[in-house]
Amino acid sequence: MSERKTGRERGEEWWQTGIIEMSPGIIRLRGYEIQELIGRVSFPATIWLMLRGELPSEEQAALLGIALGAAVDHGPQAPSIAIARMAITCGVGINSAMASAVNVLGDVHGGAGEQALSFYGDIAVALEGVALDQAVAARLDRFFAEEKGYVPGFGHRFHPVDPRAPRLIAVTREFAARGVVSGRFADIAEAVESEVARRKGKKIPLNIDGATAVIYGELGFPPPLTRGLFVLSRSVGILAHAWEQSQQSERNKGPLPREWLWAYTGTPLRPFPAEGDEGPAEGDEGK
Amino acid sequence: MSERKTGRERGEEWWQTGIIEMSPGIIRLRGYEIQELIGRVSFPATIWLMLRGELPSEEQAALLGIALGAAVDHGPQAPSIAIARMAITCGVGINSAMASAVNVLGDVHGGAGEQALSFYGDIAVALEGVALDQAVAARLDRFFAEEKGYVPGFGHRFHPVDPRAPRLIAVTREFAARGVVSGRFADIAEAVESEVARRKGKKIPLNIDGATAVIYGELGFPPPLTRGLFVLSRSVGILAHAWEQSQQSERNKGPLPREWLWAYTGTPLRPFPAEGDEGPAEGDEGK
Amino acid sequence: MSERKTGRERGEEWWQTGIIEMSPGIIRLRGYEIQELIGRVSFPATIWLMLRGELPSEEQAALLGIALGAAVDHGPQAPSIAIARMAITCGVGINSAMASAVNVLGDVHGGAGEQALSFYGDIAVALEGVALDQAVAARLDRFFAEEKGYVPGFGHRFHPVDPRAPRLIAVTREFAARGVVSGRFADIAEAVESEVARRKGKKIPLNIDGATAVIYGELGFPPPLTRGLFVLSRSVGILAHAWEQSQQSERNKGPLPREWLWAYTGTPLRPFPAEGDEGPAEGDEGK
Amino acid sequence: MSERKTGRERGEEWWQTGIIEMSPGIIRLRGYEIQELIGRVSFPATIWLMLRGELPSEEQAALLGIALGAAVDHGPQAPSIAIARMAITCGVGINSAMASAVNVLGDVHGGAGEQALSFYGDIAVALEGVALDQAVAARLDRFFAEEKGYVPGFGHRFHPVDPRAPRLIAVTREFAARGVVSGRFADIAEAVESEVARRKGKKIPLNIDGATAVIYGELGFPPPLTRGLFVLSRSVGILAHAWEQSQQSERNKGPLPREWLWAYTGTPLRPFPAEGDEGPAEGDEGK
Hints:
mainly alpha; globular
């Protein structure tokens, strides 16, 4: 393996990648000279090329851009947005304010899209053998037996109907009508929504995570990668809020108005133990 | 100020923003219903709307997207890219790998574009009274008197000519010819490049930071905000590399091949001081 | 719930905590005036008080400090350390270099201690009914049936014997002899090590994660909290390396020597598709 | 430089450090075998050894630990603390919650201690030639001529008197009386406080940053490194709050009570521009 290889070759192999090739004066992304891409490829198409390795059609790129644009912001009550705004008042660069914010787009604050796409994907795989309504029913049976809470991609704590979802599905149908995508994931999502409504006795509508998952599924993105797409999308709102906050004069912005405090719920004032009181306040060998 | 205001009003005022308005079932970005934006506005146009508060023309959005796409990656020897790749092998989410990476796009690894645009801006302001060559000469005089190193936006440690820059200027000229932008910042950048070459006796070519700064200047973005635009751009390469790495089996990836160590340059092996040897190994009261 | 409560009360309740109480001129940690703690309580005892809510004995605090000090560093081939060193060369503050590094102490680069303590804890619970060797055997049976790889807390990719572990166990035994801790977790760890050796035919020694887990278990820290203790510990090495690097002149430090590149393994040079070549390079509607 | 050197040597030299030496079975910190340090050296002494390269006396380590323990927390209205609490509710690891928080200990939220120590250091240097009151007066003259706001290390937005500062100075005096430190920085801080009071007509008391800066100065830490010491200290409060929050059931915790929103101050509802309305809503070529 490293017999005839020089140390430099071993080191350079350690950092191998199939994404970008460089030498002095030359930058190639996925085999294309970068100067041939500039001005010919949209930003969403560049994102696709970097992540997938091949150029999409203009229509595929447009649909990707539509999904990315839909999830950019949900306001300062979203932890990622609040964190960006507080961070920029602390004397750190805008990249660091963005980093602290992006860092919290975790399983609870950003994972639903990935879970929704996995859910649809399970159904899509089953479609190879059964009809859609059967595949949906089977997957929902499994979900309700094993998990609790909303089916991923459905319901919203704030919106009775998430205003972004119906429009995203309508746009997906338009692209399907033009043959850009098949419409299969839109069918799956709508079938899940119907079946859940039938079982629960009320509609639990598709939300932004479920709707963007439809588009990412139509476009062939694997579920874990959609977590990263959500990060690219939400980074826009994070930047916008950090930027707006940076133009104001607040310093060290906390979560509540400056003249407020917080409620203290802990041990009341007590004296520091006197000498000889040295044992652990807790049980034996600490516990 | 807070006389007749309820506590809730005071709290909600503490988190005021002009970017997004929400109520159940309603999301508006900069005054537009989000469902009216979806499918009608490209991702770069959405970015523009979020940051600037108004919709750009399709041409302006396209030019913004071109600049964003040009700076997405510079390979695993860029610290941001290497950090993303190492981070994803440590058992953290892809958002956290991206955050650790974006966090280092600081003054040295991401600040040049902002400095270049400020530099051009100084010249643009002076153009109100003097000719371009005079404004350029005056600004360069000041730079060479006060600072050292390359004029921001020019030169590159790796590329004799950065392959992205000439193409970005050419694209800018095309958009200027169509009246989308004025071409003034392209003129400024080219005049600076010429004058520096005249003074130094050799060409120090425009680089990616200087070229994207031209576009951001043409489009009216203030210099500090372009730092955030670079973050959005580089986030794409960061995601691509984190994703590629995540599909491999390495765990806890360090910077060098696993069988290598590092060179130790410190104090040689020494015995722990015996009892009575208790004084500080350093001078008096520590220094 | 919020009937008679003012908005301010509701807001302050939203940020309630039992850790710290403040009013102008007053700071109390867990009920103690801070000025009574300063100078009377060691740093490890302060850490204990903040996390556990009660003061430890001096001996308990000392043992905590010993565990914290043992895991501070493992050199620049640890991703957290390399990231700290690269980050500080990028023009960000030392706190941001530390943040990017601490951020990767995830399940793979920092989770082993928590898993080891959970493992011991399973055995400790079983001890209420069976002898130690039976509890150990049962837990190992379950582990080898359900998982692969090393038993958490044992083995090391680099060290045949982790030099930190035997010393940490010896110190634990000293504290047990003085009645500060029971020694039960040390017994468990040693029994696991013996039984694994018996089953595998060779010793797979206790490592730093398993050894610090013994101490944290003896001191009564719950497993998930020990992940945070590891962060406090490793933050010291992270700071030391960032500081050392900051005193050198490198800028934008990548993972390999500056004159090296990386191996490119991707698509070879190819021409940008001509007009009319517009379809997706991938299958149908994207795949 | 790299003529006779192998690639491996070049790579290992790229990651050289004087902090830690390792080979299989061996870990040495600053020349000491780690197993000789464990159990003999307190956690603050380990921190000192890692940062300074030499072992401190037990007294020096104790004073360092006192300073580190004093600044661990300032409650949920500190952005770092609020961020830690929100982050842990987003489904990320406790290390990531800590990272997002530590990341904002920047110039405004953590830089005052470094500035205070630099200020004292300027005076300390001048003491080589003039009396203390002259050196203090000169430095204050410069400060009031060039800057605005509080002298670094003095004043507090919340506390009329920061309860931590007098106690830290008293402890410093105790250590000076025992000959562990000189007391010179305590003298400087007290002289600055007096002279500022004389000039302003009211006392602006020493705060936590100014008081810990006294101790770090007495112990010989350079100002930029004290920023990192503050990070180690505040990491304790950050962990305590993240841990406390993690034991509660909130998910995606925002800054305000869940039933509140934020005040919208932006453009009122407006219709999406009709076809033909396509021009930029802003001035000409973007502004």
